[in-house]
Amino acid sequence: MQPIAPLPHRFPFFFVDRVERIVPGEEGVFSMGWSANNYYLSDRTPASFFQALLLEMAAQAAGMVLLALDTEWQEDKPRGGYLLGLNRVTFPHPPGGRERLVVSVKKTRSLGKMLRFSGQITEGGTLLAQGEWTLWEESYPTE
Prior knowledge:
By secondary structure, the chain is mainly β. The chain has 1 helix and 6 strands, in the order ββαββββ. β5 and β6 form a beta hairpin.
């Protein structure tokens, strides 16, 4: 199974490198290697930039849960989605850069093609971010 393939993101803007567990359309656990010499962990990088990366990481994880529903995915059959909003997002601790980041997301609501996921990001058991992500699922017709 390769649910990562349908996302349009590529290096250096793809923030998930391992699928730990996935239930298509419902929930998933993903991770990313995050070392102290990571490109994004410079001393000059503002904390808000790290927070934006964590938000994007969770949105990509939710997108993979959603797109994993399509077991017949092919490159010529595009699918996509949009991040519509964030709710109750908090950042209790900054990333330390010593362990893998783990993102867990779970679908909590749906209204047609609008879906809400709750999730959290941890590093070595320390909570880095938590909140809700609202996505719009989009399928594009093929000829």
